[in-house]
User: Fold this.
Amino acid sequence: MTTTQHIGAAGELLVQYRLVKRGIDTARLTTDSGVDLVAYAPGSASAVTIQVKTQTAPSPSGGKGALSVGFFFPDDLRAQLLAVTLLSSDAVWLFTREEARELAQQHNARGVRQLYWYMEERPGRGAAAAPRHAGDMEPYLLERRVGDLFGVPAIAPAGAVASAEVR
Assistant:
C-alpha cells in the first residue's frame, strides 16, 4: 500500500533525479523543517533550498468537475523554491517563494495557500475569466527554469513539454 510518505519521497526523488540529470547536485534532508532538498547551483555557486509537494494524479475538482491538480503549501514557506510534482506524468514545476505566493489562488486563516490548475482549458469561458490550466503552467516546468534558477543551460527538448502533459 502506498502511503503519503511514499508519495512524498517519490516526488522528492523525482525532483532530485531531474536536477542531477542537469548537473545540479542535490541532497535530501531527513528532518521535517519545511525544507526537503538542498541543491547546489553551479552557475551562482550557491545552495538553494526546496520544498516539494506531490500529487499522484489529477482529480476531479470539487469531486465531480474537470480534472485538476492542487498543491497546498504554508504561507510562511521556508524554502527558497517550491517544487510541485505530478507522479502520473513525472512532471515537475518550480516556483520561487514569491511566485508561489503570488500564483496561489487560495489562502486561508490558518496560513495555508493552495496553488491549483485545471488539466485542460475549460470551454465556453472567456480568456480573462478562465481559470488557470496546465498550458499556463508550462513556463514553470523544471526544464525551462533551470537556467534562471540554477545558472545552467535550460533544456527543452521536443518531448519535454509533451511528456509533462496529462492526457
